[in-house]
Amino acid sequence: MSWFDPWRSRLCGCPPKLTFNPYTGCDHLCVYCYASSYIPKFFFCRPKKDLIPKLEREALRLKGELISIANSSDPYPNLEAKLGLTRKCLEILTQHDCKLQIITKSNIVLRDLDLLKRKPSMVSLTITTIDDELAKIMEPNAPPSSERLKVAETLVNKGVPTSIRVDPIIPFLNDKQENLIKTLASMGIKHITVSTYKVKPDNWQRLSIALPKAAEKLKPLYFEEGERIGRYFYLPKSLRLKIMEKMRLTAEKYGIKFGTCREGLSHLNTAPCDGSWLIRTTEKGYG
Length: 287
Prior knowledge:
- With 287 residues, this protein is α/β, with parallel strands linked by helices.
- It is built from eleven helices and twelve strands.
- Helices cover 35% and strands 17% of the residues.
- The longest helix is centred in the last third of the chain and has 17 residues.
């Protein structure tokens, strides 16, 4: 485990938390994925070597920290259904003093409800669009959006605090999200985290192949009018601000707290960006 933020980004506004990834790489094959630019053979998903004995040692030193699982690779890749590695990690962590934040796109998380309810915990579920057809293009090996919405509803109904990552927002593709936010509110979702697509060479190549018409429109926005921040190409700040303000207003309309992620627009946040505040509001209900 290490302290998040591994990129030491001045744009990261997350509260202090530890993080680790049970797997190296991910098999969801998302076209917009950032981690593929710094993790070799990213779409070849494999378990971390010697993870369990290392985690058992590190867990002994925990003193109530928040642990985010996971920030580079989904902790519930399709491989997890067979290996159960993330479940083994949770079995260890629930015996120690910590809080848990799960970040995933997968319905496999429902398998581990029994463990998540043993500790102060939350799930941050990524849903980029309400359109299953678009999601299939953008996230070809992840569960359909309609399935993820059912997961969110189940988590809420089972009493597990749940936030939604509407991330990334890509102009011309999924920048109209009122139907999604309205649906989330009807389920009892209390927080969304929103971020725009950041371009790196490898994810741009994948997006250009998968969605060529959108890529043609996006090209000048990123490479002529946009900003270069670190190793990423961002949309122009004025456009990012417009998108985020619209998302915030929509969230407020339906009574949902709002946070931005790595946008440099933290003044728009109505709650801590990652949704981890949800854990504190229900902590007494966990044993």
